[in-house]
Amino acid sequence: MEFLVLTPNSLLSYTKLKPIPKSISHLPKPSSFIPKASLSIPKETVLKSFNERKALKIISGLQNFNKDNVASVVTAADKGGATHVDIACDPELVKLVTSLTRLPVCVSSVDPSAFLAAVEAGASMVEIGNYDSFYDAGITFSPEQILNLTMETRRLLPLVTLSVTVPHTLSLPDQAKLAELLEQEGVDIIQTEGGKCSNPSKSGVLGLIEKASPTLAAAYSISRAVKIPVMCASGLSAVTAPMAITAGAAGVGVGSAINKLNDVVAMIAEVRSIADSLGLSINTESELEERAFRL
Question: What is the pLDDT of residue 24?
C-alpha cells in the first residue's frame, strides 16, 4: 500500500478531528522552536533505557487532567521502578509532575502546537499518540494524518525526543510501512497499540496473553521493519511485558493496569511487579519510600 504524503497546508482531513483546536494550516511558521527545557535533558539520556531494551513508561492518559490521579500515577512510576512517565499535554501538569519525579516526562497529544508550552515547562519527550479517546468518538487516524502531524512536530521541535504511535486500525503490513516512513522523518521511537476493544475470552494468564497479543504482534512486525526503538503498549501486564521485549520491543508502555487503581500503594506494587518482570533494578531509597507509603 502506498501512502500519499500531504503538506501541512493541504491536510484537509485534519480539520475533521474535532478535539484539535485548530488545523496545522493556522499554526505559526517559525523555522524551529528550541526551548530551554529541551536542552536540560539530553536526548541520549532520554533514550538510554530504550537502547538498553529496558524502558518502562507509565501512562496516565492523554485526556487525564485530574491532578490528584496523575500525581498518584507518577508517584507510583517513580517509586515502582519505571524509567519514563507519560502524561497529558498540559504545561501546568508538566510542572506538577517534574516536581514529583526526575524521570523523563513525555507528553502526548495530536496537536503539534500544544507541545511547545509543555516542553518549555519541562517535558523532555513528546508523543503523537494515545488515541483511545478519539476512537471512542469514532475518529481514526490515517497514515497521511500521522505523517503530517509528525513532520509538523519535528519542524517545531527538532531537538526533542519524538515518539509516534502507529494506529492499530491499520493492518500489520501497513503499520510496518508507516513505521518505516516515520523513521525516515526522524522519529526516535515507534509505539504500538493493540486495540482498546480487545476483550479476552479466557481468564487468568491465558486472558492476559490473549489481551496483549495484538500489540505483541505489532511490536514483532514493526521491530523488524525499522532500526529505531519500538515501544510496545496497550493491554500489557507483568506476565506479558517480558514477551514484548522478546518480540523485539525496546520497552513497554503501561497505562490502564496502573491508572485504573484507586490506591497509590496498589499502583506502586503493580509498577514494581512489571519492573521486576523486565529485570529493572529498584534502588534502596525507593524501597524505603514504598514502605513508608504502606505505614
Answer: 37
